[in-house]
Amino acid sequence: MLRSSDDRGRGRGRGRESASREVCSFSIKPYIPGERKREMGGGVEGPLFETKGGKGRIWYKLYACSVFVGTCLIWVYRAIHIPKLGEEGRWIWLALFGAELWFGFYWVLNQSARWNPVYRRTFKEMLSKRYQDKLPNVDVFVCTADPMIEPPAMVINTVLSGMAYEYPPEKLSVYLSDDACSELTFYALLEASRFAKSWIPFCKKFKVEPRSPAAYFKEERVGPKDGLQAAEWEKTKSLYTEMENRINDVVKFGKVTENIRQQHRGFLGWNRATTSRDHQAILHILIDGRDKNAIDDEGFTLPTLVYMAREKRPYRHHNFKAGAMNSLLRVSSEISNGAVILNVDCDMYSNNSETVKDALCFFMDEEKGHEIAYVQLPQLFNNITKNDIYGSSLILYNKVDFHGLDGYGGPLYVGSGCFHRRDSLCGRRFDETCKAAIQVNDRNMESSASTLEERGKSLITCTYEDNTEWGKEMGLKYGCPVEDVITGLAIKCRGWKSIYFNPSRMGFLGVAPVTLAQTLVQHKRWSEGDFQIFLSKYCPFLHGRKRKLKLGLQMGYSMYCLWAPCSFPTMCYVIIPSFTLLHGISLFPKVSDIWFLPFLYVITATTIFSLWEALLIGCTMKRWWNEQRMYLFKRLTSYSFAFIDTILKHLGLKMSTFVVTSKVTDEAVSKRYEQEIMEFGLPSPMFTILATLAMLNLVCLIGGTKRWVLDEGIGLFGSLLLQFVLCGSAVLINMPVYQAMFFRNDAGRMPTSITLTSVALAMLAYIVPERYFRFPRISQ
Ligand SMILES: O=c1ccn([C@@H]2O[C@H](COP(=O)(O)OP(=O)(O)O[C@H]3O[C@H](CO)[C@@H](O)[C@H](O)[C@H]3O)[C@@H](O)[C@H]2O)c(=O)[nH]1
Ligand SMILES: [Mn+2]
């Protein structure tokens, strides 16, 4: 599997090849059903988790079939009414037909998410009884990339919540990868390593939740009543606040003071020449769990804590988060070598201290555990407002889609809140020999911390991965903006399964984007990455099928992979019906026509279903409406940009980038977010598109109504009804855009330049001569 191996300067006298292999090696014990249970003694039999199917599926399937029939009838109508070659308006008809074919096809793909959902439940008590001291090492990987938009104080809260898991601390290690190589973040982590000594015992003694101190102290503004806890609460809170202030002061100042520099030899790693893009590898074991002196205030062992900044050079591509994760995989294999790895983004703190045990219930289950590569928890956020104006809670994916995919072999790996089996993440194929329980592998007790650091550093140099399979067959894959999704898919194609676990107490909470621009840019990255996967050799329908992924899962992955191409059909549907409405040209059957029925049925049935589904999972009506708007906005902007960029990349005209989502916001912006006022503010080509299309629809609706009222009367309305409905809904959904253009004067309103441009462009709709759009009025 691995090519060339040379021994140059590798301290241990072994080649890159063997080093890489060893990183992924595993002690495997043959699986003998029943053996483990006997070993453990009676009273603890039974599976560690349970799976249940969704209810009322038969009704859903009936509904879906009826919609499908309706869709087919729409296609038939379009097909038999295509204007003849040479007739005017043929291309408009064909464009609409193409869009409807696409929507129908895409709707079929979406059925994979609802056809066969499953729900999981774990039995943690059983796990603890049965495995007690035989639990595996667990490594937590946190990635950060920029101290300005990912504040160190937030990052260490995530770290602390990971250290405070209800799990034997000698088996728990937390690694922070800092792609910014910032001494500010290092300093914050150093502070966290000290604060952990009082935070962890406090959490364990009083069963505190959540275990991110910032989140906990924010929730419990007034401390507990009972005496002892109240005193400790006060003390811990002030310790935390003081630390947070120190960190924020240093961050504000922009660098650590000489005084702080003296506190730890680690700061020697930074000098004047160090920049985030040009520096040597830095690796520090801030807490060594093996160390007898590494104890908390109550005398218990502390979990291991490690800071890592892999080597960066301006002329070497670093592969973003995937590169960081692969470095973490290697470094951790030297230090703690946890058989299970938890990956979280730096904003995603643990909100549930039992989650590690939940995850282990899946991996350690005697019956099915050996085939599970990863357990994904939902990505949830703690800054979602009531009506979720940007649809950033991803609630439909969390509450519907992923349960559906789980029924076909498992959800996507979405980068954060995911537990991995180390060997499957490192590239191992699933086969008969994998039928082994996860093993307790002891830590390397001989080597000193500084030896481990030196060895670790040699694994994270820029050249380490040259001529190895890292980024290809090993670890996370490179070259894709959604390294998580493609890696998860590759793991599935190697024969593994995954699990979606959605516990009632949320497992992780992060920071969702709070402006329209951020949301659209994030979705551009996602849809671009997903579409790249579809065009790559990992295309779910080709590679997936070859690798025997279930059809449902192939469809499920494609549902995301084909976000980007949804853009143009949507654009057709936003532009053409309105445009032709303006000119009084009918594109849909008349109300009295029998062909009107399939359109009516498909549109109302799918709308009512989607509303009903949203209400069922706890959305408000307004939230559902906001969600529809965001669907539209993403398709018109993020997805179309992603589509174009993907094509350019394929032609070699563009490089891949990773725009990190900001986790901080200025006060005025976040106030508007709280009030659910849509944020525009700075000019962006995406806003120009949105504003122009919004204006276009408004002009068309007004023009169409005028024509109807003044010129042609009620008969015309009958043949244009659907176009009125489509154009009218577009106008309704665009309300916030008009407001931002004409009725607001806060800093978040639409930039004037965009307003002017869009009004001018929309006026063109009036000027463009009608004959370009004239159309035989077949259905009249
Ligand atoms: O060069 C980089 C860029 C990013 N990151 C980290 O990657 C994480 C995700 O970045 P973010 O900007 O928050 O992206 P999101 O869109 O919110 O993240 C989702 O989508 C990404 C893929 O597009 C995945 O990497 C993430 O895990 C997933 O949560 C953050 O912790 C970053 O610090 C790095 O470590 N190095
Ligand atoms: Mn994020």
UniProtKB/TrEMBL annotation:
Residues given in the record as UDP-alpha-D-glucose binding sites: 150, 179
GO BP terms, alphabetized: cell wall organization; cellulose biosynthetic process; plant-type cell wall organization or biogenesis
InterPro entries registered for this protein in UniProt: Cellulose_synth, Nucleotide-diphossugar_trans
Region (Disordered): 1-21
GO molecular function ontology, one term from the record: cellulose synthase (UDP-forming) activity
Keyword field: Cell wall biogenesis/degradation, Glycosyltransferase, Golgi apparatus, Membrane, Transferase, Transmembrane, Transmembrane helix
Start-end of Basic and acidic residues biased regions: 1-20
TM region(s), chain numbering: 58-79, 91-109, 555-576, 596-618, 639-660, 680-702, 714-738, 750-768
Domain of life: Eukaryota
Record's subcellular location: Golgi apparatus membrane
GO CC annotations on file: Golgi membrane
Active-site residue numbers: 179, 484
Binding positions for Mn(2+) per the UniProt entry: 321, 345
Family: Belongs to the glycosyltransferase 2 family. Plant cellulose synthase-like E subfamily.
Function: Thought to be a Golgi-localized beta-glycan synthase that polymerize the backbones of noncellulosic polysaccharides (hemicelluloses) of plant cell wall.
Protein name: Cellulose synthase-like protein E6
